[in-house]
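## retry 2 of 3
previous attempt timed out at serialization; input unchanged, resubmitting
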Amino acid sequence: MRKFLLRPDGLVLNGKVTVLVASAATDRRQRWGQRLQEAFTIISEVAQRAALEQTMRDLAPGVLLLDLGLPGLGGVRSISRIQGLSTRTKIIALAQRVDDREGLVAFEEGAKGYDQRNIEPGQLRKAVEKVMAGEIWIQRRLVTTLLAALRSMKQSPRPPSFLDSPRLCRMTPREQQVAELITEGASNKEIAQQLNITERTVKAYLTELFRDLQVSDRLQLAVLLNREGLRPAALSATGSSRF
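## retry succeeded, writing output
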C-alpha cells in the first residue's frame, strides 16, 4: 500500500512531489511522464475529464499538467472548476499554440503556468520546479503582452461583493501604491526605489496583500485589480515585465 505524506506545498510520495498528467494523446502523456519521473512521482495519467476530476479529488496531486485539448474539458475557462477539486494542486496549462489572450485567461482562472504542448522536456521539468517554488511559468515573450492586456482592460462597475469588501476599503495609501506598481510589472527592487522603502518592506506589503485578497502571486494580484476596476493612485510605469 502506497503512503502519501501531506505537506503545505502539496502531496509527496517517497520524498518526491506528485504529478498528474492529463492528455488524450498517449505519446504526449508518455513523453511528459518519462521526463518528469526522474525528479517527481507520476501518480496517474488520465485521458478524459471524468477521470481527471476523480483523480484530483482522490489524490490531490502537487502539480497537474493539463492539456487544454483534453476531451470534455471545455477549454481554458474550465481551469477554475478543476482547481476547485484540489486547491493545493498547482496547474500548468499546456496549449496547442500559445495565445496571449488564452494565457491571460488561464492565469485568471488559477493556473500557475502556461506553455505549448510540445514544450521541450527539460523546460517542462523546470516549469514544474518553478511553480512548486511559488513562481509563475510563462514564455518570456508573453509577459509584456500580458501586462499590456492588463493595462488595456476596460474599467467596469465592480460587483457588490467586491465593493463591500472591508479589506479593500481599508487599503492604505502605501498598499495602493505597491499594488499599482505591481500592475505595471515592477520588481520588488524597483518598487523599493520608487517608494523609498526597503525590499524587505515591499515583501511584507505583498505578503499581506496576497493573504487578504486571497491570491498567491503577483500576476493574480494584477489580474484581480484590473478585472475589478480597482485603480490605485496613478504612478508612472516602470517598464519592467518581471513576475
